[in-house]
Amino acid sequence: MLNDFDPDAPASPGDGLFGLPHGPSEAAVVIVPVPFEATTSYGRGTAQAPRRILEASGQVELNDDWFDEPWRAGVAMLPIDRGIEALDQRASELALPIIEAGGAHTEAHRADLQRVNELCEQLNQWVYGQTRDQLERGKLPGILGGDHAVSFGAIQAAAERHPGMGILHIDAHPDLREAYGGFTWSHASVMYNVHERISSLGHTVQVGVRDISRAGAARIEDWGELTAFSDHELAWEVASGEPWMRIAARIVRPLPERVWISFDIDGLDPSNCPHTGTPVPGGLSWHQALLLLQLLATERRVVGFDLVEVGDGEWDANVGARLLYKLAGCALKSR
Ligand SMILES: [Mn+2]
Question: Cα of 87 to ligand 1 centre, how many Å?
């Protein structure tokens, strides 16, 4: 199949992800699109990211001097599931009035909130099943959101497959809120839920966090299985002349051998993600993030990843598609 494939040729409309000829059964990396953002509390549109990234991915240069040539091993995306789009629509319709009211203050809202939590549990089950299925086939799974809530089921499946697995979590927010706005499965609660509900996890390292609630700061302080490198601390060290690669080595050090990457694109400087759901000034540069991934690929084994919170914009999708290719390359190179 690859014999007559030219990686330098332009992609045609209707081609697969990155214009590659592989179907999911031939590809080493399988991307699971999850167009779901029911609990997104600020800017919406991340549910469009899988479609936008698929469109933008034809422009990505496949020749990659960072991570060898991921296209040879194959990166393919499953079809966008209409049932999940419908689930997102149903849950979003129920959630939006509650979000606008700043919480469930009436009987009717409390009933709707309960329903949203149930629909989010259905979503978690679906993501869990999809991820487990790909892991059983020997694939490297990559989850493409949607907002950050979609990562829970994937991390659960990967941690079952790889007990003791750690998480490299790149994000502007620690996502350690307990049931944000009453929503148990809020995008702002994903790492809280991961740590409270998944028992077979190793260490988590958070990078680039800079919008942190008091409760979040207390959890970072108290939870021994979690280390955070705040954006401010990283900026201070870089400004004081500490080489980034030395900082990156310190970030990787607490991680166990097997690592899941949970990449919320708002961990990057917002110039890379202007339409993300909750943009925050500051953040990692493109190169800082990529150098960190490059180091991770040589030091650890990446068993899967998620890319979430990519906004509905052409530039957002362009950066998102390139980051998705780099994440696939990082996971492939680390094997
Ligand atoms: Mn997040």
Answer: 21
155 in any annotated domain: yes
Span from the CA of 129 to the centroid of ligand 1 (angstroms): 22
Is there a contact between 41 and 99 (Cβ–Cβ < 8 Å)? yes
> For residue 116, what is the domain's CATH number?
3.40.800.10
- Output the CA 259–ligand 1 centroid distance in Å: 17
Residue 226 confidence (pLDDT): 97
Residues 6+ away with beta carbon under 8 Å from 259:
165, 166, 167, 168, 296, 300, 301, 302, 303
Evaluate if pTM is beyond 0.85.
yes
Q: Which residues of the chain have pLDDT under 50?
A: none
Taking the centre of ligand 1 as the mean of its atom positions, its distance from the CA of residue 11, in whole angstroms, is 32
163 within a domain of the structure (yes/no): yes
Provide the number of structural domains found in the chain: 1
* In-domain check, residue 274: yes
| pLDDT value of residue 1 | 64
151, 37 contact by CB (below 8 A): no
Distance from Cα 176 to the centre of ligand 1, integer Å: 9
Domain residue limits at 213: 35-333
Q: Answer yes or no: is 131 within a domain.
A: yes
pLDDT at 175: 97
257 phi and psi, to 5 degrees?
A: -60, -45
Strand pairing class (301-308; 140-145): parallel
- 192 CA distance to ligand 1 centroid (A)? 11
